[in-house]
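Support request, please re-run this one:
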Amino acid sequence: MPRDTLTRGQIVRAAVEVLDAEGVNGLNMRRLGAQLGSAATAMYHHVKGKDTLVVLAADHVFGEIELPDLDALGWREAAAALARGAHAMITRHFWLIPAMSTHLIYGPNKARYDEHCLTVYESAGFSGGDADQAAATVLMFAIGAAQGEAAESAWRARLRRTGADEEQQVRDTIAQITEIAQQYPRLRARATAMDDGQDPFEFGLKTILDGLDSALRGKG
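Re-run finished. Output below.
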């Protein structure tokens, strides 16, 4: 694709596709050019480099989060919807967590999300720094809760990049984890217990929102 027909939006969307498949380490201008059918040098006419591209891609995926209608929902339902949206988005885009550890993620989509979060917590009765703390606490929980799935996806992407037998590596790793867990009675019991169906993310989210609700009642 000639450079004068490329747009920044096309490049960012292609970067997200590469990141979803191969992670941050798999993204470079040559790989991106191959994704778009264009010379790697054409990318530099639209973005400064890989670091800029990672920030643009991260902001782009924040735009996937649907913002709840606060007029139709109470603050708790709206806050839960925002947390679920962030958690699901990060789970889809596993590379976002390592990107957050090396890049400052900002842009219009991230700002849009943050603004809506603050609106929700201010509507609940939090003000100033308390609204900031409430929003940050819930977002940090959503990011942390996505860590496990994101880590597995990143590991699988690394295996694919190295050409390893992905499924055999997964079986071997599960066997090693199971063998280690057998040495500890509580882990051994949980390895053989039936799944009770409780979603750890939903349990944690409810606990945090209960705590914020309690703090509001205390102030009241």
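Residues 200-219 form the longest helix (20 residues). The radius of gyration is 21 Å.
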